[in-house]
Write a structure and sequence with these properties.
The protein has four helices and no strands. The chain is mainly α and about 140 residues long. It has a domain of about 80 residues. Helix 2 crosses helix 4. About 5% of the residues have low confidence.
Length: about 140
């Protein structure tokens, strides 16, 4: 882990009666990591860079145009279902439902990755925007 400062506590053996998991603070107790810092420092280098070029462009565009300006300054733990509902309503005013769903799907992936690396305890449910499907054509 290049550039990381190691502390003595990192190498100290656990106390006799303390379970190993008690040494690590729970995700909510750590300093808040914002969506923007997580995207730049962890998600982009560890996930996005491993994708095909078009997918990389898609994540960059969605983050730069939609996620960063509206949710980027929020701590990951603050992105809950209520905040997502408001964000989805704002998106729907500016975008078509299908584009709105692309943005929400990429946000969902970012949050699942944050859960996988234990920065959040749970991923909030992200509802998609409803798309109007064409009426079926009935012929007689």
């Amino acid at each position: 882990m290049e550039g990381e400062i190691l502390r003595c506590e990192d190498f100290a053996p656990p106390a006799a009666n303390t379970p190993k998991t008690a040494r690590r603070p729970p995700p909510a107790a750590r300093s808040p990591v914002t969506l923007a810092s997580f995207f730049v420092e962890r998600f982009e280098p560890e996930y996005v860079r491993l994708q095909k070029p078009a997918t990389r462009v898609g994540y960059d565009t969605v983050f730069r145009n939609h996620l960063g300006p509206h949710l980027g300054g929020l701590p990951l733990a603050a992105i809950d279902e209520d905040r997502l509902s408001t964000f989805r309503a704002e998106l729907r005013q500016r975008l078509e439902a299908s584009t709105c769903n692309v943005v929400l799907a990429k946000l969902a992936k970012i949050l699942r990755f944050a859960k996988r690396v234990r920065l959040i305890a749970a991923v909030p449910e992200i509802e998609k925007c409803r798309t109007c499907s064409p009426s079926p054509v009935v012929t007689a």
